[in-house]
Each structure stands twice: as structure tokens, then as C-alpha cells.
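Hi U.,

Before I forget, here's the chain from the pilot set. I'm dumping it here mostly so it's searchable later in email.
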Amino acid sequence: MSRIGKLPIKIPANVEVSCTGPIVIVKGQFGTLENKIPEVLELHKENDVLIVNLNNTTRTNRALHGLHRTLINNMIIGVSEQFKLTLKLQGVGYRANIQANEIILSLGFSHPVIMTIPEQIEVEVLQNTTINLKACDKASLGLFAAKIRSWRPPEPYKGKGILYDGEIINRKAGKSGKK
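Structure:
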């Protein structure tokens, strides 16, 4: 059995979990998420604890057991607390602005980079160089942050680029002069 999969999931008081067939629906103060689980898994809800049980123990089913338990746990955390990510723009002239439902990034190109903000993600720009992202769905939040970051990933020579908060870039020495 999966070590992660057999751990119980605690359900907060403001979260409602329901399972209709293979679809799990989680409702909370920040939104509603749903996910399809495989038929080999069963959900048992007792008081404020959710347990994911496995019917058939093959190698792939054990892997699915741990995966889907973690996905359900992330759904519960997301609708009760929300996930947060912070991106920092590091470089001369790098800026971010929000207009309507678009984020406009000035990243040293000859043109501004305009990206549409997905509906389920909240974006806040602080001091033109810090972008705070919030969402219920951890996967969509990470994907949107990765798309923003892909425009200017951090480079090791000057340390410029879009960094996650707390990320450390190992700097490299540049070319050395003639001797």
C-alpha cells in the first residue's frame, strides 16, 4: 500500500466534500473544485476525516492511490486557504502592470509581453517588480507562474530574470581576461 495514500485527510469545518461516482467535489469559501478518481479507489468519510482506500493492489494502482490522495488533499487546502506564489522581477527596467484581466510585463524586449489572466487566479502587483498570485487550484497556479517565468528564466551570469520568492541563483564567473 502507498505510504502517502493511506494517510487520512482532515477536513476543515468550512469545507464540504461529496463524491458522486468517480467525481469528487470539494466546496469551500474560496471556490469549488472537482476531480475524477479511478475506479480502484474508494472514499470513506467519517466525521471530519476522509480516507482513500485501494481495492486492487498492483504497482500502478498503488501509485495512483498516493497521487489521488495528494490531489484531494490539495483541493481541500485550496478551497479553505488558497495557494500563494510570489514572483520577483530582477533586472534593470523589468516591470509588471495589470490592466483589466491582463498582466503586462516589460522584460527588456522591444515590445511588452501581454498575458491574459485566467479566471480562477488572482494577480496582484507590488512595487512594479513583485507579482503575487493566488488560486484554489495548485496545478493551474503553478502552470500560470511557469508561463510568466518562461519569458525570462533566471540566468546565472548577471542574475537577471523572473525568480520565485526565496529562489537562489548560483552565479557563474564570466569570461576571464587575457593573461
